[in-house]
Design goal:
5% strand; elongated; 2 strands; 3 domains; 146 residues; mainly alpha
Length: 146
């Protein structure tokens, strides 16, 4: 086995260990998973790629990568997701104040909360005073029962 073949096998092994699906260029299927590595072969050992060959390979690869986006259902799904997550903040027009004042329902709700708190305080006044006396003493004095 040549050093190039050994290097190719090591690269394929490392790509597979990282979760990539390694495929030959002639039988590539980029839809088999999220990470596809395509094994590019075809040049002679001492040959250099020509600019035309590189351009053709780039064009072919671009077509293969963009092929999923020609799917009409996928395009519709992308547009639906974009519309659902889009948030428009309009800063041009000036808002108009329709009403400024007190709301009777909010006032009644607040009054009910205050009255409920007062009733709680009255009901638990003795316990509250005992806690005030207890926590009003210095910590070092300790508690004494008796």
């Amino acid at each position: 086995m040549t050093p190039e073949e050994q290097a190719r096998q090591e690269i394929d092994r490392q790509l597979a260990a990282a979760g990539w699906l390694v495929q030959d260029r002639a039988r590539m299927d980029i839809y088999v998973g999220p990470g596809v590595a395509i094994r590019m072969q075809g040049l002679l050992p001492d040959a250099e790629p020509t600019p035309e060959g590189l351009a053709a390979a780039a064009k072919e690869l671009m077509r293969a990568v963009l092929r999923p986006f020609t799917n009409v259902r996928l395009q519709a799904r992308i547009m639906k997701l974009q519309t659902a997550s889009e948030q428009v903040i309009e800063e041009v027009s000036i808002d108009t104040l329709l009403y400024a004042g007190h709301d009777a329902q909010v006032r009644q709700r607040a009054k009910g909360l205050v009255e409920g708190f007062r009733a709680f305080i009255e009901e638990h006044r003795n316990e509250i005073e005992a806690l005030q006396v207890l926590y009003g003493r210095p910590y070092r004095a300790g508690l004494r029962f008796g």
